[in-house]
């Protein structure tokens, strides 16, 4: 019985692999060089949020256990954000406050992107992405085209493929 504590949980491993794929896609050089996301701490957070939103949207459309996977993936994202804050030297007493801001930012972006992604509204998505990812009023049209293509591609992958091989995001440079 004690040995069961040391076995790897295949679900936890799959979630870690899925999150790693999302995080890796959010660091693609083309997002910064070709699509203009600022290569800053804030820009990288925006890229990670966008890719998380896209992955969670795909999971939302898949049958069970996709809902549990989405919950576990969201928890992995917030654990990573917590660990990142601590690595940057944010004190233990301040981390909960910062995490509330991170959560509000993430869910705000998810809400802002959801409608335009549902409607395939490139112009509306470009405005929301410009405001969040670029920090300006200028629309982010190439980034919106990328996000719409990624949304379609992830939904077409299917749950098994997504879990087995990880998320396949398009090459950002092709949308510049």
Descriptive notes:
Pfam families: Ubiq_cyt_C_chap. Belongs to the CBP3 family. This is Ubiquinol-cytochrome C chaperone. Residues 34-169 form the Ubiquinol-cytochrome c chaperone domain. With 176 residues, this protein is mainly alpha-helical. It has 8 helices and no strands. Helix 1 crosses helix 3 (41-60), helix 3 packs antiparallel against helix 4 and helix 3 (41-60) crosses helix 5. The longest helix is centred in the middle third of the chain and has 25 residues, at 95-119.
Low-confidence stretches: none
Distance between the termini: 56 Å
Helix content: over 70%
Strand percentage: under 5%
**Mean pLDDT across all residues, rounded?**
93
Q: How large, in whole angstroms, is the Cα Rg?
A: 17 Å
Shape: globular
Q: Find the count of extended strands (DSSP E, 2+ residues).
A: 0
Count up the domains. Answer: 1
Largest sheet: none
User: What is the SS-derived class?
Assistant: mainly alpha
Instruction: Work out the helix count.
Output: 8
Q: Helix and strand succession?
A: HHHHHHHH
Topology of this structure?
Elements: H1 10-26, H2 29-33, H3 41-60, H4 66-87, H5 95-119, H6 122-134, H7 141-157, H8 159-165
Helix pairs in contact: 1-3, 1-4, 1-8, 3-4, 3-5, 3-7, 4-5, 5-6, 6-7
Please describe the structure with a list of short key phrases separated by commas or semicolons.
176 residues, mainly alpha, globular
Briefly say what this structure is.
The chain is built from 8 helices and no strands. It is mainly alpha-helical.
């Amino acid at each position: 019985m004690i040995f069961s504590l040391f076995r790897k949980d295949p679900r936890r491993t799959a979630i870690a692999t899925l999150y790693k794929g999302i995080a890796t896609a959010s660091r693609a050089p083309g997002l910064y060089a070709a699509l203009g996301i600022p290569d800053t701490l804030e820009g990288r957070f925006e890229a990670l949020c966008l890719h998380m939103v896209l992955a969670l949207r795909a999971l939302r459309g898949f049958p069970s256990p996709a809902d549990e996977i989405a919950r576990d993936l969201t928890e992995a994202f917030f654990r990573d954000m917590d660990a990142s804050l601590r690595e940057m030297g944010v004190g233990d007493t301040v981390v909960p406050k910062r995490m509330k801001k991170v959560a509000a930012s993430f869910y705000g972006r998810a809400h802002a992107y959801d409608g335009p992604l549902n409607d395939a509204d490139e112009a509306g998505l470009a405005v929301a992405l410009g405001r969040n990812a670029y920090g300006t009023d200028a629309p982010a049209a190439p980034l919106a085209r990328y996000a719409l293509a990624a949304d379609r591609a992830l939904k077409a992958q299917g749950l098994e493929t997504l879990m087995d091989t990880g998320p396949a995001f398009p090459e950002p440079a092709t949308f510049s």
